[in-house]
Amino acid sequence: MLTRRYPISITEAQAKINNVTLPTVTETIPVAEANHRVLAETVTAPFAYPHFRRSGVDGFAIRQADDHDYPHEFKVVGNVPAGATFHQPLGQDEAVRIMTGADVPVDAGVVVMLEKTRDLDDHHINIVVPEKHSNITEIGEEYQAGDVLIEKDTELNPGGLAGLTALGVQRVTVYRQTRVAVITTGSELMAADEPVQEGKIYNSNGILIPELVRENGGIVTSVEQLVDDNDLLQASLQKAIAENDIVITDGGVSVGDFDFIGDTARQADELLFNKIKQRPGSVTTAFVQDQTLVMALSGNPGACYTGFYLYVEPLLRRFVHQATRLQKVTSRLAAPYHKTNGFDRILRATYTVEDGQYATYPNGPDRSGALSNLQTTTCLIKIPHSNQPIALNAEVETWLLPFK
């Protein structure tokens, strides 16, 4: 059934997506599995760090550097490699050989760097010049027990994981990753292992969408490739809705005889939009069914790619309490754009920074089905709807893509 669609602006569509209520679901996992996961609880120090007085250099621990004239002879009464301890009293003219990171004897007030000493024999050294610094990291110098290690809503990275591990933290509570099902539709689609057939195309979106989801922190629970069959689509769609947080479809959103998603969207619990004032991807559709968001993207690869970054990426990030990685800037168009547009046109582009300003270069064909520029695209630019060409150096709204 053909039903008139009422388009909304890109900004309005993004706002509707941003207003979708998302559940907060957490899980507790080992620190070793938490890279790029987002903390759902603030983590505090379970004890002071360091929890012993730690030598910052290789050298000799003595009581005080300013108690002597230099050079001065010391008797070496012990050796403390990293991981060992020395609990004997330390006399006035006694020294303990110590390694970087080792436990400093309790009586020692300074560690003299090895370079400032001379060996006299196996058990005696000369300290040639006094040490100006203690070279000792005191107990709790970095953290006291109860200090915040990493705040809630922080995305963990390898450095953060190392810090947690250094404090003995073994498990952390994080937001569960978004569960995403991908359904690609179209009887024209072929799997990658099929021979080339006239009138059919390989299912490039079947790898594009899942990898974009994974790259942006989601978990792909399933990827299906369906022929144009409404009963088959509805069965797969309902199963995916029941088992996932987000369902992404491609194709089936236009007004052809086999474009079934549009009818499904109109019967959903909440239709967010089914047409956007943009090219490519004007028929991008979003609706909520049983508390699951269904994002129906165009089947054309270029339009699918654009739609993912404008609408799905921010949603995946928000699910784990993070801001979009898209950086919105104003750039200058490095080449004139001659097409006139009834809708805003989103161009795939590259950018440079010249004299502190972003310059953007349209990146090859801007047809919705074009995919030759997807590998090299580093930003998206919005050419505003106009019946006039856009001049060289015109300012345009630009989204810098993540991971580029």
UniProtKB/TrEMBL annotation:
Entries under InterPro entries matching the protein: MoaB/Mog_dom, MoeA-like, MoeA_C_domain_IV, MoeA_linker/N
Role according to the record: Catalyzes the insertion of molybdate into adenylated molybdopterin with the concomitant release of AMP.
NCBIfam families recorded: molyb_syn
Single GO term (MF): molybdopterin molybdotransferase activity
Protein name: Molybdopterin molybdenumtransferase
Lineage: Bacteria, Bacillati, Bacillota, Bacilli, Lactobacillales
Associated pathway: Cofactor biosynthesis; molybdopterin biosynthesis
Top-tier EC class: transferase
PANTHER family: GEPHYRIN, MOLYBDOPTERIN BIOSYNTHESIS PROTEIN
UniProt keywords, alphabetically: Magnesium, Metal-binding, Molybdenum, Molybdenum cofactor biosynthesis, Transferase
Its EC number(s): 2.10.1.1
A single Gene Ontology CC term: cytosol
One of the GO biological process terms: Mo-molybdopterin cofactor biosynthetic process
Reaction(s) the record says it catalyses: adenylyl-molybdopterin + molybdate = Mo-molybdopterin + AMP + H(+)
